[in-house]
Amino acid sequence: MFIESRCDFCGDCLAKCQYIDFDQQQGTREFEKLVKGEPVDWLKKCITCFACNEFCPQGARPFDLIVRRMEEMGNYVDPNLLAAVRARFTAKGDFQPPPVKSTVLALCTIEAVIPWAFQGQLFADLAVVKGRHYFCNVLFPHMGNESILREGLKPLVDKYAALGAEEKLSSLMMTAMP
After folding, report:
1. pLDDT tens, position by position, 71-130
2. Is residue 80 part of a domain?
3. Same structural domain for residues 57 and 116?
4. 2, 90, 146, 175: which could form a disulfide with 65 (CB 3.0–4.6 Å)?
């Protein structure tokens, strides 16, 4: 979610973009227009790489506003293509959580694309959940739509919770946490 109170309109998010040719002043002006909801002609040039979130020194999450404006525009991608992709990844049938007794690896739908990447000893003791019921919808912001992602979050979290697997933080993660 774009955090307007953090944004100081420095313009870094757009000036550092590799796909939109703005200097610092132009980046500032254009992002101010975006925040105000004014039309901007550069929105279609965005390739949805999320890099502007990394460029933002204030952590305001400018990409989140960019994708919201794309969705409001309604034509970042062809609406028929968006509907077809949504239908392709919508789970069919009732959700039945598999019995899980060990650590779980969620592969979403990626395993079908690169099955060779999830073989070997590293994966031997993992319970694997995969398929459309575990699709995270992260594809849709890349298609200029955040609402499909948002509406799928709670059902996805509920499906993971239904597995009954114990949550564990690795020691590396715990040392990195403040």
Report:
1. 999 989 999 999 999 999 999 999 988 888 778 888 888 888 888 888 888 888 888 888
2. no
3. no
4. 2
Residue with structure tokens 């993971």? 160
Cα of first residue to Cα of last residue in the chain, in angstroms, is: 22
3-state percent breakdown (helix, strand, coil) of the chain, nearest 5: 50, 5, 45
H or E stretch at 151: helix 147-162
Q: Determine how many CB atoms are found less than 10 A away from the CB of residue 119.
A: 9
The answer, as to whether pTM is greater than 0.85, is: no
Helical packing angle, 62-73 and 24-36, nearest 10°: 60
Phi, psi angles (nearest 5°) of residue 176: -85, -15
Are residues 20 and 54 located together in one domain of the fold?
yes
